[in-house]
Fold:
Amino acid sequence: MENKKTNTQPVLTDEELFSPVSHSDLESEKITAPRYSYWRSVFRVFFRKKINIIILSLFAIILAFTYIYPALTDYNPYANLMNASAKHLLPSAAMKLFGKNIHWILGAGASGQSTFDAVWFGSRISITMAFICAAINLTLGTLIGAMWGFSKKVDLVMTEVYNIIGNVPYILFISVLVLIFSAGFWTMVFALTVTGWLFIAYFIRTQVIIIRDREYNLASRCLGTPITRIAVRNIMPFMTSVIVTLAATEIPSYISYEVFLSYIGMGMSDMSLGRLIYQAENSMLTPGWQFEFWSPVVIASIITVVLYVVGQNLGDASDPRTHM
Amino acid sequence: MGKYLLRRILHGLVSIVIVVGIVMVLIYSLMDKQLIFAQDPTYTNLGNNAKTVYQYRRWKEFGYLDYVPYTEYLQALVSSGEISDAKRTEVAAIEKKSSEDPKAVKEYVQKFTQYYESKGYTVKRLAAVMSGRKVAPGGAQQLFAFKNKPLLGRMLKYFAGLIEVDNIHYAQGDVGKRGLSFTLHDPVYGGKFSPAIVGNGTRHKYLLYCNSKFPFVHQNLVTINLGKSYSVNQGVDVFQTMNASQGSYVRSEITYPTSLTEISADDLHSAVYIQGSREASAVNIARFSDDYTGVITVKSGLSKIGYSFVIGIIATLMAYFLGIPLGIWMAQKKDKLVDKIGTVYIVFIIAVPSLAYIFLFKAIGYNLGLPTTFDMEHATKLMYVLPIVSLALPSIANLMMWLRRYMIDQMNSDYVKFARSGGLSEREIFTNHILKNSIIPIVHGIPASILGAMVGAIITERVYVVPGAGNLLTKAINFYDNGVIVGVTLFYACLSVVSIILGDILMSMVDPRISFTSKAR
Structure:
């Protein structure tokens, strides 16, 4: 009915129908395109893949266990130290002894402590350390790497520094620092960041050099754009996906480093994941004790894999070329 | 090219020197000297002045400072003929306090103090510690001089002594007529034909000789001196520690210079001059006719570097032979099943801590019945399997990841589209264009991975108890063995500089577009 009504209403005259529209220079410059928000597109692309939702929820569970779970439980590794029957128990035996609750689903360790609690308290230390190290190294590395890539003078000096520092075995650096200070948490953070930023800066420098001399930047420079604006507006968007991908490989690598250093006896004194693995090494081949060794190993692996996959996929999603 | 290479090598040498400097600052200046006594039972058992003297003596041995006790100074005066032995005994007896010294002693103490203070030493006199009327245990009076070594002097001395060329004026004391002689009949083989150069007055007796081992002709004329080990392998040079064979002795019938024939593991070709050593023991008198008695024993196993290299090189070869075809396959079947399985494998290796998957391989190998620990006495080929596999699998993943990445990047480039529109078959495009271009960065890494095999792998060697070179550095750090730390670092730095230069040369050979001469640019 309504359709008919509109069609059959010859209200407008010819003059009204063909009146000239006022022309505006400003309006003609506008480009009509769908509204584009960078970060909204990133999340749209990220959540398009169903597997990302699964992995992200796993990530949330891990974070909950590492940060909320230890706050809610009080865990004393030496509570059962004098109880000889509580040591090296399989999950079934531990649950029979202490009752069925979440603490004993991975059995009991060498001093009768709950392996499950030990693992999450350990991963809180390891993950916190990895995040702090990654934050420091990525910030320093990106800033210095950007300068390194832009300035030819800085490049000359920094390349030499890189060649020299790259040749000093990093185990030596770390162990000397551990010996000078103590084998604590912040020493470890300092040891991993004191030279760690250099390798990230080198990576960023190479990326900056690749993009720096592209035609559009050359054109931008010819038009008189100041170098800071080129850096922030032309190059930064390109680097976002690179930096996110880099973070994805860096954060798990610090956890692996920490595990490795603890294993060779140069780690920190806190009961981190690495130290748990180091202490339980002898239980690996003892029948019935394997749970103590494999629980921290498997949980460390799950944490690193989840962090890596989330980071990689976020890195893919933050590349504007995938936003079509 | 030659000029460019020379500049690169010089550059590399400068950075090696700076690296050694940094390491020396790290271990000698930044680290607390006191730490070396942390697990030293002798130190804890000593008391009073003896403890102090022991401290300085150990610090000298570990290379922290120069330390000269008074008695040593007097001994030197005797050797140079300045004072007689009787005089030495007289003036060596310092009293409990410096004020009680007799006149003759005072004179020489004064001389000692003046001489060493003029050389920048600090002279320290420790008065006896008394408990009641008697001297307390370890409380005897002491007199010595010490000086901290400056970094520059330490570095100069280290690099000056790095390469040692044997000469006929090495041996001290009376060795008869000094000189080199060439013989066609090596005395070690009892007059059989075998050319050798034998020296008298040199450090090594045999400067050049032949035997049945690769490379058949050996020399002792030039030795590399990376520094002495103090605790890992007491008193032995780092280079020797890395290169000497290990395991059980290989005994064979040996005719000594005195024509005594015995079943022994001694390698007479390694004989080194040790002053007065023949007279020192009856065994040496029976065996040797001169003071060249310092021999190395022949052992059945490989050296530390040998084991690391055998495992590393096989793992590297395996990685290239498997990783490159797999990487190509993944790139060809992009987004298909093969690519997805490969990606899962790569994510597993990169994300999971290396310790975790090495232990996983160890557990799998254990269940398959493979030997999980290395045993030099009962060497079988099977015990190499697990370390090699553990080393190869991560490098395979790495190669696959990068080759796939490079190939996919090349696939989207314009020249590939052009070749396709020109009518080339996919096969031709793949092998002649894409592969050729994407393999170049891979080629750059080949020398590094081959030379890197000598360094050894820390975790793998530890987990499978391989007596390789990988753990040398961590062990040295744990024992505060400064000589080994510096030597090993120097070795690593040289390897990395050489491998980068070789990689660049190899890359320019594979890709004619890359040129290092400035003219061609």
The longest helix of chain A spans residues 227-263. Confidence is low (pLDDT under 50) at residues 1-6 of chain A. The radius of gyration of chain A is 29 Å. Residues 122-266+294-322 of chain A form a domain with the MetI-like fold fold (CATH 1.10.3720.10).
